[in-house]
Amino acid sequence: MRNDDGQVIRLEDYRPTDFAVHHVDLVFRLGSETTEIEARLTLERRAGTDPAAPLVLDGDDLTLTGVWLGDEALAPPRFDATPDRLTLRELPAAGRFQVTIATRLDPAGNTQLMGLYRSGGVWCTQCEAEGFRRITYFLDRPDVLATYRVRVEADRAAAPVLLSNGNPQDAGDLGGGRHFAVWDDPHPKPSYLFALVAGDLDVLTDRFVTASGRDVALAIYTETGLSARAAYAMDALKRSMRWDEARFGREYDLDIFNIVAISDFNMGAMENKGLNVFNHKYVLLDPDTATDGDYAGVETVIAHEYFHNWTGNRITCRDWFQLCLKEGLTVYRDQEFSADERSAAVKRIASVHGLKAQQFPEDQGPLQHPVRPTRYREINNFYTATVYEKGAELVRMIATILGAERFRAGMDLYFARHDGDAATMEDFLACFEEAGGIDLSQFALWYHQAGTPTLTVRERFEDGRLTLGLEQDLQRGAAGTGTQPMHIPVRFGLVSEGGADLVAEPAAGGAEIDGDVIHLTTPSAEIVFEGLAERPLVSVLRGFSAPVTLRFEQRQEDRLRLARLDPDAFSRWRALTDLVGEHLRNASIARAAGESAAFDARIVDAIIASAEDERLEPALRAQMIAMPGEAEIARLVGQNVDPEAVHEAREAALTTLARRGEATFARVHEAPAATGPFSPDAAAVGRRALRNALLLPLSIASGSPDLAHAAFAASDNMTDRLAALTLLAHRFATEARTRSALDAFFERYERDALVIDKWFTLQATAPVPEAVEAAERLIGHPLFQLANPNRARAVIGGLATGNQRAFNRADGAGYRWVADQLVALDRLNPQTAARLATAFRSWRSFEPRRQSLAMEALRSLAARPDLSRDLADIVERTLA
Ligand code: PHE
Ligand code: ZN
């Protein structure tokens, strides 16, 4: 299957197509065996191009059944076709003309889940990035914008619901049990936003009236019997629509907005114009089957896809190198939405936590790449944390640098100037330069230079003068991008003994200060604050104002005080987490050398104190007492990591915390929980998070699973039930009672795919070496399905990315097992296999023995002749 000619796509080779596609008329005849497709393209040569140039259309694995120019059927040599390309010659030199292409597909045999495929009984499409070419031959690239009209024909019994982009135009009966529907999308769009869904689906409907009075029919389609579970998604959709009007002045632009929940889906969801297609995980919820984390995920993803309507669809990307233009910006927008809907500090902590867990390791390992890359072999492999999450951080920095008002002006200009365009990252930045009256050429380096910069801070206090020294350093990484000094916005505060922000005037210094932001634009700078009566506590990088690694050798007592009283809640969390992280890092290194390191009682007491700090909202207290995970600790150790030592160090710290904090934790845990029915609101979520976070230290302190069993038995929602069951499976795995709890859970939810995914995951992630054998047993379970991406991720991903100890087992069994599963999965679904393979990205940070075992597993993969281009690309870059 390896269609790899080793070809690298380069940004500098970009040039527009010779032909424009003005309009696409599609007919789909869906059948149980094959599907026939006719695509009539209205084309025109672009002015100034070679009038004799052939039209070369992209295809992928296609079967051609006919080609027409106008009404004339063509035969070779007027065209030649391979499964991957259709070339047409002797086309009109000027004016519009029509080419019709007929193809035949087998959607049921499409296990890649790209193009047209069947999920359960449902026909659905996925076209981003290059899936449309698996439906018909096309100029399948984002800068070719056309209007679409789509006619779908199918058996009414198999597919009573027929959907595509835009507005419904016509529908009717065809006799013989067949029927049809016609959809018209008046907004020119790139092919990657095309979508079609047909099947027997239930629907939840609602309506939304936009600010200017457009009445929009909303519908969420689900598998039969499940539409009630779409209620929260519908609520999130309406809130997203309102928020985008209020915050960015963006209204919806069609009469109808459809969402479909699909159970076989490679990613989270897809923003197809007027017809978003979702992994059902991000639509279907109720308290009995979904956790609070699932609710947050649904809200975020629903908002994200909706926001794409402006940032992605109305303004799309010129080429795939510009992916961050739509993704980084849209993630920024969904983060802001969640921050406004819930607690901003809790949301920011969660985002930074995710950034450090996903993007930092990517940026510091072999898969490192700039936010705006300049080359790729397989675009599917660039839907990364760097493009999405770091991309969002760059937009956030622009907002920090410009301030809220000028940022909004820049966004307004971007929407006004580029509506209907396929734009570039440079176009985007130019709008902020113009609206903000600022030169962003240095800032643009953030898009081009890969790697996480280190920001080193030093402080000196003498005679009422505080001197802050700032220094930036960008190690040259694997991506080989430059190391020029960047523009780093450093939000800061000077905090008094009593916990108030001091107002101090900076004297002349090397960096510019604007309000509470220091603009570091040089390799190093000093800032002096004068006339300070007392030595202030220095709080830097508030709100994580730049995606950097902070090195600040601040006195421990200052950090402990900041953890208690920094007026900025995010910084309080960071002060404490950094202290804990440093201890765990040092303790892991000590253990690997056969020594031990004591957990400073003052840090332990600070964690315990935060658990009952009534000034903090419960969600924040839960975040303060959560220990960094093993992978996070490994990242802090950085090199020569011994995962067993990391595990033991973390266990030891947990035990110390549990014993010392037991009385406090029990007191907080026993405080009466709020009464009343389940609610997914932020306050209720926070209370559950805190209680569930306390279960772990309390169970460790007592050495007994009784509390978790009681919580499991008493739980009236999935959040509490899963928290208790996970604790039992991870810490009391060998007990018969744990097995009964797992079995009871399984029996209760056997027919509920999304819950059964959780059941698989919690077993694959048990932090014990034997989890490898357990995972092997799980893939033999009757409900395991390799072809279903959620299920494959639950077990293979659970072990590879959610179980550091087992994946990095000393004998290499974890690496070998994952490599074997990747080979099997790659035959069905290269995109999902490649994504799971990124679990190997940190292999060089482990101790030498594990490094060589991981390398062996990677090499055995690389040596296979039948690897997909997706998987080969990841494996080869990881080894490079
Ligand atoms: N564009 C989708 C999103 O960010 C993600 C996606 C990419 C989905 C590729 C499918 C395929 O919302
Ligand atoms: Zn997106």
From TrEMBL:
Pfam families recorded: DUF3458, DUF3458_C, Peptidase_M1, Peptidase_M1_N
Alphabetical GO biological process terms: proteolysis
CDD domains in the cross-refs: M1_APN
Domain Peptidase M1 membrane alanine aminopeptidase residues, every copy: 232-443
Chain ranges of the Aminopeptidase N-like N-terminal domain: 95-193
Keyword vocabulary terms for this entry: Aminopeptidase, Hydrolase, Metal-binding, Metalloprotease, Protease, Zinc
Gene Ontology molecular function, alphabetical: alanyl aminopeptidase activity; metallopeptidase activity; zinc ion binding
Listed cofactors: Zn(2+)
Domain of life of the organism encoding this protein: Bacteria
InterPro entries on file: Aminopeptidase_N-like_N, Aminopeptidase_N-like_N_sf, PepN_Ig-like_sf, Peptidase_M1, Peptidase_M1_dom, Peptidase_M1_pepN, Peptidase_M1_pepN_C, Peptidase_M1_pepN_C_sf
UniProt catalytic activity: Release of an N-terminal amino acid, Xaa-|-Yaa- from a peptide, amide or arylamide. Xaa is preferably Ala, but may be most amino acids including Pro (slow action). When a terminal hydrophobic residue is followed by a prolyl residue, the two may be released as an intact Xaa-Pro dipeptide
EC number: 3.4.11.2
Residue stretches making up the Peptidase M1 alanyl aminopeptidase C-terminal domain: 557-880
Residues covered by the Peptidase M1 alanyl aminopeptidase Ig-like fold domain: 451-552
Enzyme class (EC, first level): hydrolase
Family, as annotated: Belongs to the peptidase M1 family.
Protein name from the UniProt record: Aminopeptidase N
Species of provenance: Aureimonas pseudogalii
